[in-house]
Design a protein that fits this description.
The protein is of the alpha/beta class and 341 residues long. The protein folds into two domains: 204 residues, Rossmann fold (3-Layer(aba) Sandwich), CATH 3.40.50; 92 residues, Rossmann fold, CATH 3.40.50. 43% of the residues lie in helices and 16% in strands. The strands form two sheets. It has a seven-stranded mixed sheet with strand order 9-8-7-10-2-1-11. Strands 5-4-3-6 form a four-stranded parallel sheet, with helices on both faces. Strand 7, helix 9 and strand 8 form a beta-alpha-beta unit. The longest helix has 18 residues. The C terminus is likely disordered.
Length: 341
């Protein structure tokens, strides 16, 4: 993990940790938000992709890299590959968010399209790998990717101090596994949780049933968490006693809006699952110091889920002259104030 941190240090941002008095009060806990929406490409994925790309030897790297991704990992791999001057190929499923596909292309990767299933993604990536000789950098089941993702937790622990628990979004398992490795390298008893959508609960079911559940069809607004958990990720989660906590899409979208209202930042629905999980489980988190990794902020601003039709405002929800919640300098504070630009 320390080797990964040193490898990516020249390229990745050290993202801020934010605090909110009102969210602490709402949760009944002390919340420390690690804001990976300020990371390069707007998501934590750059950490893992960067570590994997720069860990390749020169001859292997020259043949390029390939992956499959619904967006953020593809953009991250494309940017990391561009930084090293090597080709990148990204297999993208039908229905992926248009803004994320545009970012992948803008960073110079070649797009290869496939059906919106994990099987189709993996088959197409293998085909491209044979055609090009590129190295596969899996979105979450790659040891170098997992180690790179864990560097966010290293930074959070260094800045926030001792915590009682760490919480990340849970999809394929790369971020939560990297977080568990980083956390337990410092404190073997530190609790680690993954927040998973009810409509894509393959990890929850896998941990509960003691087998790798792969036959669930995801149905969730969290496009970044629709991937099936990896075999090595599931094994690491069992080894490190990671618990999966389920949240509904409605709870996730409510948490997404809360983050915007109280922290004044836009995050993806996938990312908001962590706050949703804290608010849904006060019996677990009340009275504790919690680190939450906000995984990314790549959203279509024209389609935010709480928007009204253009030109219309709902004055009935808020009496004139009475703010819905407290605002001002006291509402938002940072652990270490800094310029974010």
């Amino acid at each position: 993990m320390l080797a990964a941190a040193a490898r990516i240090a020249p390229f990745a941002h050290r993202t801020p940790v934010l605090r909110s008095f009102s969210l602490d009060e709402l949760a009944g806990a002390e919340l420390h938000f690690k804001c990976e929406n300020f990371q390069r490409i707007g998501a934590f994925k750059f950490r893992g992709a960067c570590n994997a790309v720069w860990a390749l030897d020169a001859a292997t790297a020259a043949r390029g890299v390939v992956t499959h991704s619904s967006g953020n990992h593809g953009a991250a791999l494309a940017l990391a590959a561009r930084g090293r001057g090597i080709p990148a190929h990204v297999v993208v499923p039908e229905g992926a968010v248009a803004s994320k596909l545009a970012a992948i292309q803008a960073y110079g990767a070649t797009l290869h399209r496939c059906a919106p299933t994990i099987a189709a993604r993996e088959a197409k990536a293998a085909e491209v790998q044979v055609m090009t000789g590129a190295s596969l950098v899996h979105p979450y089941a790659d040891p170098f990717v997992i180690a790179g993702q864990g560097t966010a937790a290293l930074e959070l622990l260094a800045e926030a101090g001792p915590l009682d628990a760490l919480l990340t979004p849970l999809g394929g398992g790369g971020l939560v596994c990297g977080t568990a490795l980083a956390a337990h390298g410092r404190d073997p008893d530190l609790a680690v949780y993954g927040a998973e959508p009810e409509g894509a609960a393959d990890t929850y079911q896998s941990l509960r049933q003691g087998r790798h559940v792969t036959d669930l069809v995801p149905d969730t607004v969290c496009d970044g968490l629709r991937g099936t958990v990896g075999e090595i990720n599931l094994a690491l989660m069992r080894e490190h006693r990671v618990q999966a906590l389920l949240v509904s899409d409605a709870q996730t979208l409510a948490a997404m809006r809360l983050v915007w209202e109280r922290l004044k930042i836009i995050v993806e629905p996938s990312c908001a699952t962590v706050l949703a999980a804290v608010l849904r489980n006060p019996d677990i988190f009340a009275g504790r110091r919690i680190g939450l990794i906000l995984s990314g902020g790549n959203v279509d601003l024209a389609a935010l889920p709480w928007q009204f039709p253009r030109g219309r405002h709902d004055h009935r929800r808020q009496p004139r002259g009475r703010p819905r919640h407290r605002t001002g300098a006291g509402l938002l504070r940072r652990v270490q104030p800094r310029r974010l630009g």
